[in-house]
Amino acid sequence: MFYANSVHFGLTLNSRERLDKLGLKINHQRMSVVFKNPFYCGLMAHNALEGKLIEGKHEKLISKDIFLKVNEIQKKNNHGYKQSPEQENVPLKIFLKCDSCEKGLTGYVVKKKGIWYYKCRNKGCCNNKSAKQLNETFQSSLSYFTLNPKYRSLLKEMLVQELKEESKENIDTIKLVKANYQDINHKIERLEERYMEEQITQELYVKYGEKYKQERLEIAKELTKLEAGSSNLEEGANEALDFAENLSKIWTSGGYKEKQRLQYYLFPNGIRYNRKSDTVRTEKLNPLFLWIARQQQEVGENKNGIPELNLSYAALVAGE
Questions:
Q1: What is 13-76's CATH number?
Q2: What confidence tens digit (pLDDT) does each residue in 60-87 have?
Q3: What's residue 18's pLDDT?
Q4: DSSP state of 3
Q5: Which of 56, 211, 220, 235 has CA atoms 20 to 30 A from the CA of 7?
């Protein structure tokens, strides 16, 4: 039986300390479950009993007095908010991280007011912010990465040229991979000749034959990938710009999962919120959209950077 001197959010601190000393590690959530279940104070419930509780014959873990006392305190400690795993009102959940402890922020609603918030899962941080405000900040930041149709023709020409420059490096790589492919074919042919001339045993022929053929398969896959990336640059540029032109619309009209996919596509490591300075920042950005944002601002002769994300391009140029 547990005898508690103090109770906080449905758990007894003394009980947990005593259990720790006995070698049983139990968190406060599990302790809360124990104190909410009437089974542990000697009562039984079943569907056949139509919601009634009866006295059980099993040993009580806690007394009825403590059970009632703890549950009464738990009711008073109800903060009046409800968490939701997938909620349209908090699309930045987990993707948005606490700048202090780096944990993903969760979402909750204050039921009486119907207002949604983001909140750090670390109890010591007290990092929370209106979901509406942070959603609007993120949506505003998307405007920098959303392609303005009037710049499309110019940016397409620039993007194709950029891709051509990159493809020059690919051409050299393709030549090297093709040489490796020819070399492995030669090894396979030579192995077959040696086997036919009885210079090696069947065991060695099978062993090295499988090895070389597996290497050739991997080289062929790599070659296919490289050649696909070097062909039809204009089509690839058009697809990228089509997506960029509709970026804001896709995020606004998408559901929770669609929003999350788009967010991580743009910002692979998520974004961070600092409550003290009330700022949002990021450390990594999809290079294509970084390029679009920079070129679009330069063409429009606007100031470089994205104030909504507390971002200057200087810190991200190296990764471009």
A1: 3.90.1750.20
A2: 777 777 777 766 766 655 544 454 555 8
A3: 64
A4: -
A5: 56
